[in-house]
Amino acid sequence: MDSEGFMQTFQSELKCSICMNYFIDPVTIDCGHSFCRPCLCLCWEEEQTPKSCPECRTISEKSDFQTNIVLKRLASLARQARAPHIISSEEQICGTHGEAKGLFCAVDKTLLCGTCSECPEHAAHSHSPVQWAAEECRETLLKRMGPLWKMNREMQDNLNQETNKIQSLENYVTLRKVMIKLQYQRIHLFLQKEEQFHLETLEKEAKETLQELKESVFRMTRQKETLKEKYRMLTEMCHSADMELLQDLGNVLEMTELVQMQNPQPVNPEFTCWPVTGMLDMLNNFRVENVLNQKMYIRNVRLSEDNASVTFEDEPHGASRQPQSERFAAWGAQAFTSGRKYWEVDVTQNSDWILGVCKDVWTSDTDISIDSEGAFFLFSMKVNDHYTLSTNSPPLIQYVKRPLGRVGVFLDYDNGTVSFYDVCKGSLIYSSLPSSFSSPLKPYLFLSSL
């Protein structure tokens, strides 16, 4: 082999088999083959694990290798040795002096010929042969490439994590759906049992109350007959002779007093109002505040016997008001025409009250009038030392205990229902049957203090 052939063979051994250029930052892997570090990194970036040699396909156990210093120096010398033979293009010839641009100005970052480097504008600058400057530039680039590749690997790790999260998230969502369904199934089962308990309790209380009412009717019927008989007897005595009347007077009066003392008292039915689990939490999702923002003081209230209409007479101008007997009506300026709305009213300090929604409020200088045809009210009124709850749509007595704290009102306009709740107990007082609302509805409240 002649010297030229030997040199070509020697130079080919200093080339990377991936890029077919002289090595830059060469590394020798487990099998003994060498490659440019950047070429090997990019090659293995595309491969799936395990990593193998690009030439012999031998599996490499590790991926981090030290730079082959000797091979790097030889490759650098080989590049510099070929440099004088490739300076031939017009761009590499100085247009002014016709000389090859063999020097590099480190300050201006430009290629110069020997004559240009001696010019005043470059004479004070640092110059170096193109081959040396290029090698230094390669080292600079390699230093920049290291952090870039490290960031690339970190980004790949993050990418792998994000990719894994996709499958993990899909699995979690599937599991979460099952968990939620099971939880709601438990809640539904619990609420079904609670509902069954409430219905059974109501049925039991209804039977007991009906029995009490039947027994009360029987006692009152018998007492009525007794009273009627005593009345008839007293009538006959009034027609008896004077001596006979006076002789039996003491016994008759004592017997009459005894009969009057045994007068049976009426039964006031009152069912237990059980709380409904989670109901108030649900209602508070539709809560609105400050719905009653118009107010008028009231002197008198006139309520028809069937609750068909309510008239509120205004407090006369200049009339004095006692705080303990204060009465006022309040209603909303805004009318609701859709959706679900929930609000609460505190009736703790009030004996009589009316609350709910109405189609409109007719006001004048002297009174307020409401047509119950477009109203859904819950009434609390004191009758014969006993408080009663009633509704007007339909007119119906509510046989549950009167709420003593806050009362909740829930308007479901779209489903056409109005419901009332005892907030302290978390229980239902009354809910109207679904209908169809055709007019805007305003919140309404009347309060009378104790």
UniProtKB/TrEMBL annotation:
Q: Which residues form a coiled coil?
A: 199-230
Q: Where is the B box-type domain?
A: 89-130
Pfam families, per the entry: SPRY, zf-B_box, zf-C3HC4_4
PROSITE patterns reported in the protein's UniProt record = B302_SPRY, ZF_BBOX, ZF_RING_1, ZF_RING_2
Sorted alphabetically, the keyword list is: Coiled coil, Metal-binding, Zinc, Zinc-finger
For the B30.2/SPRY domain, which residue ranges apply? 270-450
The residue ranges of the RING-type domain are: 16-57
Protein's UniProt name:
Tripartite motif-containing protein 64-like
In its UniProt entry, the species of origin is given as Catagonus wagneri (Chacoan peccary)
